[in-house]
């Protein structure tokens, strides 16, 4: 079944993000103003119901992805991502045929799918002050600081090879990237680590 959805999953993997639905306030005034209802201050726009719903959906989906992303093996693979999408589709009442799965993927939309995919393949390691993003569709695993350096140190100190290696080991990636640290690229604000070549 993962193979059945793989084409859809891969197709949507590289799609760019899109903005939320229109967040402008509803221009239609209430026909009868409630004197006890709090009124907006002049010049401050209230979010529309549609914008609030979109934000709630974003939040709920992000939490769902974070809670379930460890459940689909093998981790850090296209198959794990496809399994998540299939699981979501089935729990929404979709069939397992290709047409149903593609309709579900289209209903999510490329913007939401891109956000979910990033959340699926990223990990925050607060004790190491590092973020890891390991999308198998990309050529490299990316590691960068979450914020200012630990204990007042420069953020660059958190990108030392041993720190990066510790982060990769923590999330189960150390055996999936090249062992030769000479090939790890230290850029201005992140370290890029190539994936190991697939076994022949």
Question: How would you characterize this protein structure?
Answer:
By secondary structure, this protein is α+β, with helices and mostly antiparallel strands. It has 2 domains: about 1-15 and about 50-120, no CATH class; about 120-195, no CATH class. The protein is built from 6 helices and 5 strands. The protein has a 5-stranded antiparallel beta sheet. It is globular and about 45 Å long. The two termini are about 25 Å apart. The model is unreliable at about 10-35 (pLDDT under 50).
| Order of H and E elements | HHHHHEEEHEE
Count structural domains. Answer: 2
Count of strand segments: 5
List the strand order in the largest sheet: 1-2-3-5-4
Query: Could you list the spans in which at least 5 consecutive residues all have pLDDT below 50?
Result: 12-35
Layout of strands and helices, then pairs:
Layout: H1 2-13, H2 49-68, H3 78-91, H4 98-108, H5 110-120, E1 122-125, E2 130-133, E3 140-145, H6 161-170, E4 185-186, E5 191-194
Antiparallel strand pairs: 1-2, 2-3, 3-5, 4-5
Helix pairs in contact: 1-3, 1-4, 2-5
Brief overview:
With 200 residues, this protein is an alpha+beta fold. Helix content is 39%, strand content 10%.
């Amino acid at each position: 079944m993962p193979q059945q959805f793989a084409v859809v999953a891969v197709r949507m993997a590289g799609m760019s993000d899109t903005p939320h639905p229109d967040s402008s306030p509803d221009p239609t005034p209430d026909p009868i103003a409630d004197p006890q209802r709090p009124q907006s201050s002049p010049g401050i726009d209230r979010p529309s119901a549609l914008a609030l719903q979109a934000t709630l959906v974003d939040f709920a989906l992000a939490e769902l992805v974070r809670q379930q992303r460890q459940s689909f093996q093998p981790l850090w693979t296209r198959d794990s991502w496809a399994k998540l999408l299939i699981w979501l589709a089935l729990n929404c009442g979709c069939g397992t045929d290709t047409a149903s799965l593609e309709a579900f993927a289209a209903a999510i939309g490329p913007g939401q799918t891109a956000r979910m995919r990033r959340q699926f393949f990223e990990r925050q390691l607060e004790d190491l002050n590092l973020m890891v993003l390991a999308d198998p569709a990309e050529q490299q695993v990316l590691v960068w600081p979450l914020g200012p350096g630990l204990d007042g140190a420069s953020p660059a100190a958190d990108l030392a090879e041993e720190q990066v290696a510790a982060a990769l080991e923590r999330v189960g990636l150390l055996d999936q990237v090249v062992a030769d640290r000479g090939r790890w690229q230290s850029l201005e604000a992140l370290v890029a680590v190539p994936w190991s070549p697939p076994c022949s």
